[in-house]
Amino acid sequence: MKKSSLIEYAAYALARALGALIVSLPVRINSLMGEFLGIAGYYALKKKRRLVLKNIKIAYGGALPIEEVERIARKAFISLALTIVETLYIPRIDARYINKHVRIENLKHLDDALKRGKGVILLAYHMGNWELANITCSLQGYAYKVIVNEQRYPLLNNLLNRYRELKGCKTIPRGVALREIMRGLKNNEVVAMVGDQGGKEGHVSNFFGLPTSMPTGFVRFAFATEARIIPAIIVRERRFYHRIILEKPLKTEEGADEKERLEHCLNQSSAILERHIRLCPQEYFWFYKIWKYSPFRHVVLLSDNKAGHLRQSEAVLKIVKRLQPIVYSTVIDVKFKNSFAKILAKVCMGFGLDIYEFCLKSKTRRALSKVPADLVISCGASLAGLTFSVAQENQARSVCIMDPAQAVSRKKFDVVIIPRHDNPPKGKNIVRTLGALNLIDEAYLTEHAERLKAKIPGIGHKLSLGLLIGGDTKHYRLTIETAREVIAQLKKAAQALDADILVTTSRRTPANIENLLREELKEYPSCKLLVIANQMNIPEAVGGILGLSDFIVVSGESISMVSEAASSGKYVGVFRLKAASAFCGKTRHEAFLHNAARHGSLYLIDTPAIADTIKEVLQERPAVKKLDDSLCVQEAIRKLL
């Protein structure tokens, strides 16, 4: 527990002063004060509001419209404020107040359980005014004890315990709970224990269809003493009027062994709590990280509708799934109202002003509002600002692939992944990669190779040469002369090695190059696969070719395509395209190619030397140095999770 401080004394003084005011005012005035404080808190406490909204979205799995989620959150703030006000009013609460303001259902369950003489564990939840439920039981004449967690500040903790004990409710600090609980149950008393918020030491149970940490103490004490476990729910019907519902005792005998019995009890308890939350969602305490110690994470991928960027985000998602037992992922295609709105949102975010809500199309806004996120991933500077915004709104971690500095400071992200050829600065949150992230690994190659073999009988049974050919970009042009030379060299190598040829184009490939490929290779005996992506693409074409080929020839204009080939663990030869200007020799593409060549992940080949290089490499079979950036990224992601 933290030592007393100025903050603690100020909070204690405020609580005493507010308590003195509340006990001097009529109940109706206090209820109006509570409603006002709740509404003010909803709008003023931004971090808490975001947490509440996120928890509700997680619980309901995106089934509720955002307007309904916000309505529940506002009512939850009001309910909590009323609970605080009514707790400070406890010195004035007596049996008469309880009889007027609290209605108890199924009290017979408690009386029948006590007749057994083995005590009762009253299972309380963080729902409604649980402090009022505690003193209600003692004021009804039951011998009542409650296990309490110590609050952050000792002075406030002592004040709250005095309020509880003022009305006959005996408190048991958690540190000495074992002895007191056993004594109380042995004396046939009622002992209140918490049934939710399992924390780090809890046992995973199903709650809203999600694995959630729940406490096990109440079950273990019931096993040891044969005490009945009676779930007790208190809900606010209106202002300071409440209803306490006592459920039937949990069935503690079912299960082959103690673990099964434990899980059966926890599932019963969680189901009861969930049922009441669905009936009165505003009454639950949504203000803590309910799923902090759960084995799942929600991951949101923001897409700018560029396939290469999305694949890099998916590569990070793949790493997350490798590290996290359960991952729920959602891809959201981001659409701005227009180009001006996109630029305006980016500029404003650079000055710390978040106006994305007004600049996105309604479909994108609604998709973002419905999905909770523990981790937000995007690729490309155009979505960097939005990534930071969504992460803030969800109190989530953020991963930005490629340098976001033009849009928002790198320091705002938890992890920034930047390739070396972009000359990234040093920083604790910056991961430097050799190439572009991709999905290529052994399992991916095997899967796509088998799928391709199933579609194209006869391939994959002999030495194979792959060709991944791209097209024009901002800095490079794929000329007919270059393409003709590459095809001729590939044929020459295939003839010399008695090898098959497997070819796929990309969306960028010009029509005249596609026509040339058809003319030269469609009827060529050694060409077992020719995919023209702009006409009839095969999803497994690239992965299948990478998996089946012994040597892969790649055009050098696409960092993503070259990175995929170099990540395959195969021999890779890259040929350059014609430069679009005199400055292309200094482009990031050239820096990437030279870095990868120095690393040993690929061979930079002049087109007339392609056949000789293929023959030499496949005859000598030097060790392959695979491009693999996943390990450094994995280490950074591990720290986030």
Report on this structure.
- This protein is α/β, with parallel strands linked by helices.
- The protein folds into four domains: 14-92, no CATH class; 95-283, no CATH class; 296-433, 3-Layer(aba) Sandwich (Rossmann fold), CATH 3.40.50; 442-620, Glycogen Phosphorylase B (Rossmann fold, 3-Layer(aba) Sandwich).
- Helices cover 47% and strands 18% of the residues.
- The protein is built from 24 helices and 23 strands.
- The strands form five sheets. The protein has a seven-stranded mixed β-sheet, sandwiched between helices. A six-stranded parallel β-sheet has the order 11-10-12-13-14-15, with helices on both faces.
- Helix 21 links the parallel strand 20 (551-555) and strand 21 (571-575).
- Helix 3 crosses helix 4 (66-88) and helix 18 packs parallel to helix 19 (511-521).
- The mean pLDDT is 92.
